[in-house]
């Protein structure tokens, strides 16, 4: 169908919904018209049926899996419309489907979606939450992470997302990616952070193989400092839960920043849904860095991040070669059930490094050191190994890494 024809059909759907014409609505939906199609004001058929008090149309649209909480240009949901015009039965139906009236925005951190020009942004990546684009916002190039429609539909997730963002808004540290603002009262929901154009640690290791000791120690310290800031956050520690090379972004000055923290709660790895989401997006990479207790669905605490950290540090010294040949899930099983750990092959570990890594991936979470201790140990290793005052920029090993046995 061409664009004017589609617009006309959407107009018809909305018209029928507003007039209570069930046969007309059904016919268009059966012909394949998306039930959540909107007009220029972001109004859906459900908004109109709810406003006009057409209970049968509301039920029909919900049977066709209409989004219960689409938000129009005024920030209103269908339930808000039904309440405004006092259509009690419709209110009951929508509330039973977890309809909500309005979510509370982020106040001074709330960004209008129009400011982001998402369509003109450059796509740079995709994760379980949604897509990342580079856009210009108020004259600055930033990273905009759109949250999937699926996650945005669940009011509980939306509430947690907004609460979580309100928390992130107050964080600032040289080794964490800076949160700048978010779209929470319009759709799609978007989280805006600083943009780090040099790529992530995963890509760097794919390109360079293993890193030289000096770089690996410096990066390890960057990660540990960023993570310690999050873990020591008051009143509650912020647990990352998905620390992995893809979430470690290179900063211009040859340092790393931790990204994607704080949102782990929304996709709790303990829930079956979260695992399904990881698999759905093909992003099973997280299994490689997952602490055994998370994989085994046991109770866990912030030490899961220390476990992930140890795997990342070992990989920086060894390269990621061997991992290519193993399924991420089978690695997680071997680690959790057989207590297997990656093998040390490289000759570049400075004294004390392997011991620290082994402590960090201890099967017993309580035996793992805190990041505060990790920092002290790394600083000592850095100082005693003479790595402190050398040039921080671009000293990577050029040699092809030797093949190592993973488990
Ligand atoms: N602020 C940023 N600046 C530059 N690149 C970024 C930024 N945030 C993310 N990216 C890039 O986009 C990719 C996708 O990021 P995203 O956080 O959506 O997915 P992920 O971390 O790979 O997966 P998941 O969200 O499922 O854990 C990242 O691997 C990274 O390379």
UniProtKB/TrEMBL annotation:
InterPro entries: Ankyrin_rpt (IPR002110), Ankyrin_rpt-contain_sf (IPR036770), Kinase-like_dom_sf (IPR011009), Prot_kinase_dom (IPR000719), Protein_kinase_ATP_BS (IPR017441), Ser-Thr/Tyr_kinase_cat_dom (IPR001245), Ser/Thr_Kinases-Pseudokinases (IPR051681)
Molecular function in Gene Ontology: ATP binding; protein serine/threonine kinase activity
Positions of ANK repeats: 41-73
Pfam families: Ank_2 (PF12796), PK_Tyr_Ser-Thr (PF07714)
Keywords, ordered alphabetically: ANK repeat, ATP-binding, Kinase, Nucleotide-binding, Transferase
Domain Protein kinase: 118-388
Positions that bind ATP: 145
GO biological process: signal transduction
Record flagged with keyword Chloroplast: no
Residues that span the membrane, as ranges: none
Protein family membership: Belongs to the protein kinase superfamily. TKL Ser/Thr protein kinase family.
Protein name listed in UniProt: Protein kinase domain-containing protein
Upper taxonomic lineage: Eukaryota, Viridiplantae, Streptophyta, Embryophyta, Bryophyta
